[in-house]
Amino acid sequence: MSFGDAVARLAARGGLVVQPRMGFADPARMRAGLAATRAARAATAGTITLDSYTRVNDHESVRLALHRGDALNGFPIVGHGPSVTGAMIDGIAAPDFPIQVRHGSADPRHIIAALLGAGLDATEGGPVSYCLPYSRTPLAQAVHNWARTCEALADARTAEREPHLETFGGCMMGQLCPPALLIALSVLEGLFFWQHGLRSISFSYAQQTNPAQDEESVAALHRLIGELLPQARSHVVIYTYMGVFPRTEAGALRLLAESARLAVRGGAARLIVKTTAEAFRIPTVAENVTALEYAATIARQELRATRPPQDTGVYDQARSIVDATLELSTDIGAALVGAFARGYLDVPYCLHPDNAGETRGYLDAAGNLRWKRIGSLPIRASADVVSARPMTSVELINSLSYVERTYDRIP
């Protein structure tokens, strides 16, 4: 069964599917983390997060670390090889417990070979979202790498196996990227996946700074998926806030709860949670399980929104960005490269050489993410740009800590 089909079935039966971020180098410890996730009192999906060496294809450093017993910050799926990984998930992976491999690589071809060899077929990322924030790899090279990645996943399709790929474009930079661009990138990466053979796709959106704006944004994402990829077997996945996190337990739980409400009200099938330890360190397995069960409890108390959300123009902006990109080429990879070269796609505060760096986001008094500068983004007709004045360092720090202060209830 496809990861996407499993999520859809779990969501239909048990409400929102919740999923941790979790990765350990030791197979026994990784298996124990997956087992604990499966045993949580919630509809759950498992995560195998990979280590930093594997993400950049430094497999020799993985080999040395494993030989010396050095610590790694995730599971080295290539270094361990398919037999070790297959044994690690044996008896754990099941139709009621799908497992996704998460990495962060601009060139995941070895990772895909390793996960397919181990019997897994679900992962995430994208040619833009796993290139610009995390690497100096030229975008055109990342597009090539990800095209081959998609094709390798698609080639693994059988009557019983439907590989699944999740876009990470809806999470770019974690914060201060206005929602229209997040949605456009998520949709464009989904279209790229489809063009290279994937048929089961999830579309990401990371919780931002204002619940009403987030609800409008998730509705816009659903609308664009329906308009541009209605034939895909798809669902929306929400990420609990990825920026500076509240430092108090109460603040962290308030933020996690808000993300669970957003997922349910917005009609998402899956939520990637964060824990109360997020501001300080990598969470333990027990802290992850607590977060999963807390999010599931909040989700069960919420209902899907019945009224359309406010319309402040998020959909119009996202649609304009997608359309301008697609007009550049029928080859979506070439269109992505061309759009960044022209500034039609331009991620605020992103320092990658292929990003124009002419856009900026800011927070208004109500915590809505808005555009301070739009550079060459094709949204001049719909964007409300209030000031071209550069953001000061104090304003930037205040914006970065807005969610932390709001949910910790610091004046």
UniProtKB/TrEMBL annotation:
Secretion signal span: none
Gene Ontology molecular function: cobalamin binding; methylaspartate mutase activity
Listed Gene3D superfamilies: Methylmalonyl-CoA mutase
EC number: 5.4.99.1
EC class name: isomerase
Family matches, as Pfam families: Met_asp_mut_E
InterPro entries attached to this UniProt entry: Cbl-dep_enz_cat, Glu_mut_E
Keyword 4Fe-4S: no
Record key words, sorted: Cobalamin, Cobalt, Isomerase
Coiled-coil positions: none
Presence of the UniProt keyword Signal in the record: no
GO terms of biological process kind: anaerobic L-glutamate catabolic process
SUPFAM superfamilies noted in UniProt: Cobalamin (vitamin B12)-dependent enzymes (SSF51703)
Name the UniProt record assigns to this protein: Methylaspartate mutase epsilon subunit
Annotated source species: Allocatelliglobosispora scoriae
